[in-house]
Amino acid sequence: MNFSEMIAASWSSLMANKLRSMLTMLGILIGVASIIAIVAIGQGGKAAVITAIESQGAEETIQILPREVVEPGLPQPGQVLKFTDQDFQLVQGFTGVASVSYSLYGQGVVVYRNHQVNASIQAGPAQLNDLAHFVVVDGRMFTDADVAAHRSVAVLSQSLAGKLFGSGIDPVGKVVRIAGHPLQVVGVAASTQFNLFASILGADYIYLPATTCHDFFPWWNITEMDVRIAPGTDKADLSQRLVTVLNIHAHNPNAFEDASGFLIGVERIVGTVTSILTLVIGAVAGIALVVGGVGVMNIMLVSVTERTQEIGIRMSLGATRRAILLQFLTESVMITVMGGSLGILLGVLASWIVHWTTPLPSVVSWQAVAVGFLFSVATGVICGIYPANKAARLDPIDALRYE
Amino acid sequence: MTEPLMALERVCKWYPVGSERLTVLQDVSFAVYPGEFVSIMGPSGSGKSTLMHILGCLDQPSSGRYVLRGRPVDGLTGDELARVRNREIGFVFQNFHLLPRMTALRNVELPLVYAGVAREERRRRALARLEEVGLRDRISHLPNELSGGQKQRVAIARALVNKPAILLADEPTGALDTRTGREIMGIFTELHQRGVTIVVITHDPGVASFAQRILHMLDGRLVGEERGRGA
């Protein structure tokens, strides 16, 4: 009996019990579909988080922070090192450094007439739009001249502008207040990165020139130095030299660090956490596959019992035990492969639906599809071998007499 | 003298029942020559079914020798026995034993499937056999769409499709009315006249009488032999 005949024979016996075959497939289908979907969503989520973290760094800028901020674990207030004016003068003198500035971060209440919105304050150089990943969609960005002159100008995120002014009013040119200080709105900004954290951190930002912010909040420590590098400079090399010199100046070999170190650390943690989560949920889905496999085994045992006489007839016509074994094994693998294939389709479909309807991106990898397929073949073999063997071991005389 | 097609030499069959032996066949010896039509007749419990299983290589003797076409069959492995059943024996059963989900044609093709014959050749040979038993126009019917006599004709076509040494029939008319039973025995006679070797096992003297030789069994022994009408 060759392969195509085996397939045809199995197909006709599955068709003889359509409902039963379909219900048996369903168990495998659900198992494989959930594995594919969970792995896809897990991997997609991980990729998105890592992209979001990586996009925090800007190409032509080195961000230097105190090590306490960079290392995992919350820094103790008051222990955190800050940069001094001398540090900035020191760095300014390096070859390869185009300009040096600093960024300030904080929270504050932004007021326009009777509207008050709690917003995140980000202050920095005129290139802050690169560092904080936004583009000005209305009005203009503040300039080097604004920074140098300590001008009271601000750029608002679209979300903040919407909450302060509502629709129908152009925010550009209006004056808002922060801690009592008036600020003229010069532009409205839209984020350029996929912001996975937006829902947690909020999207209400007010962007100020670093100098202006420092004037308003002189007690805020300067804990981030932004070094713009000149074209053609080796970023890694310059970063290492800057950190070394700043550490010597601070009399502390571990005082400062390049922020990319922090990002790599976070990336690793996030990667590990999502991998473990995917594995755990995937294992739960694997249990569904095992349950499906038990169903296949059960049905195959029923099928062997029901077809005992058929087995006897086939043996009397010259079927070897191997032929009987393969016939039933083909049937059970056919059930699981059909269930598995439909499960792959459903899993891909489910991860697409998740991809298009939720902020979680999902990526169906060919590895997950291959593993899903192999799992269904393996389930068919493992759960089919016992019933098939039982069929093959029947005594032909007993089988023929069975009613 | 020609070589016997099948020969039993002092064949015994017993089953262990507790510490005792239940002997079903006791020193059975006989031979069937090519082209013969033999009946084995006896009441139920005489051991004729066990004999038929041994002749059909579904079972093996406890002692003694069984030689089929010059080759001893005892001591063959399961796969070798399956091959002998496939090539040398054609079974016809009382209850037809057709596979219910297969058409008449597919049922007849089945032994050729296990013999590894290619699809086209299989179909050609199966069609030829069905034509011989007069069922050319019923090839696409499922067994439950056929009458008892038609089912038995399909079974005969199936038994002969792989050109076996012997056609072995176990109560071939047992599930049929008298008239249809006679028709089937008519087919056997016709096949015999064309040179097919046939062994029929029955309890019915009317059926047995179609053969050339009738062997009588009682309590696991061969107790006599007479000539039948077919001689």
TrEMBL record, chain A:
Every ABC3 transporter permease C-terminal domain range: 283-396
Pfam families, alphabetized: FtsX, MacB_PCD
Membrane protein topology class: Multi-pass membrane protein
Subcellular location: Cell membrane
Ranges for domain MacB-like periplasmic core: 21-243
One GO CC term on file: plasma membrane
InterPro entries named in the record: ABC3_permease_C, MacB_PCD, Macrolide_Exporter_MacB
Gene Ontology MF, one: transmembrane transporter activity
Source domain of life: Bacteria
TM stretches of this protein: 21-41, 276-302, 323-354, 366-386
Keywords: Cell membrane, Membrane, Transmembrane, Transmembrane helix
PANTHER family in alphabetical order: ABC TRANSPORTER PERMEASE YTRF (PTHR30572:SF4), MEMBRANE COMPONENT OF TRANSPORTER-RELATED (PTHR30572)
Family designation: Belongs to the ABC-4 integral membrane protein family.
Name this polypeptide is given: Putative ABC transport system permease protein
Species this protein is from: Alicyclobacillus macrosporangiidus
TrEMBL record, chain B:
The protein's name: Putative ABC transport system ATP-binding protein
Transmembrane spans: none
Coiled coil stretches, renumbered: none
Domain ABC transporter: 6-231
GO MF entries: ATP binding; ATP hydrolysis activity; transmembrane transporter activity
GO CC terms, sorted: membrane protein complex; plasma membrane
Domain of life, per lineage: Bacteria
PROSITE patterns: ABC_TRANSPORTER_1 (PS00211), ABC_TRANSPORTER_2 (PS50893)
Organism, as annotated: Alicyclobacillus macrosporangiidus
Keywords linked to the UniProt accession: ATP-binding, Nucleotide-binding, Transport
SUPFAM superfamilies: P-loop containing nucleoside triphosphate hydrolases
PANTHER family the record matches: ABC TRANSPORTER ABCH.1 (PTHR24220:SF86), IMPORT ATP-BINDING PROTEIN (PTHR24220)
InterPro entries, A to Z: AAA+_ATPase (IPR003593), ABC_transporter-like_ATP-bd (IPR003439), ABC_transporter-like_CS (IPR017871), ABC_transpr_LolD-like (IPR015854), MacB-like_ATP-bd (IPR017911), P-loop_NTPase (IPR027417)
